[in-house]
Amino acid sequence: MKKHLLATLLGALVAAPAFAAxxxxxxxxxxxxxxxxxxxNWSTQRGRFNKVSxxxxxxxxxxxxxxxxxxxxxxxxxxxxKLDEHLMSEDFFDVAKHPTMRFRSDRxxxxxxxxxxxxxxxxxxxxxxxxxLAISSFHCAENPxxxxxxxxxxxxxxxxxxxxxxxxxxxxxxxxxKLLINVEAFKD
Length: 188
Hints:
With 188 residues, this protein is mainly beta. The chain is built from two helices and twelve strands. The protein has a single domain (20-187), classed as Lipid/polyisoprenoid-binding, YceI-like (Lipocalin, Beta Barrel), CATH 2.40.128.110. The longest helix is centred in the first third of the chain and has 19 residues, at 2-20.
């Protein structure tokens, strides 16, 4: 009896790390990347991207995880159709050559039991550079509508568009772009 109990406990301890990491699929209807940019010192202009996809792996016990988020640039939405056309042109996002931008990370930094930042790599216009998302809020619970486990967060980062080769109208049109991402994901 003692040997059987010991074998069961050892088996559970060995197997536990294999099941600790949970995989989540990003919910595109509740994930909305928004950008802010200074418009010639007159105002802060905002826009968003309406199509995203990706995966998140989260191991809260080990305080680690990964993120792979892809943004469909043709889904840019400034609220002005002519401006959206211009943003998709060679002057800015060059959608014909670079239809997506992507954030990838194999590390999530925790403070206590909550994720606080995600250092990763951001690819825009074929250029990949380091970018860290700061997490301002994080929550996991069963979604009462879908009846599935879900996690959500709000994250923010600032990048210089010139570092990715996007220099049209600089410096009047700001070089710094603030990226705000609200994300929700369902457990697979």
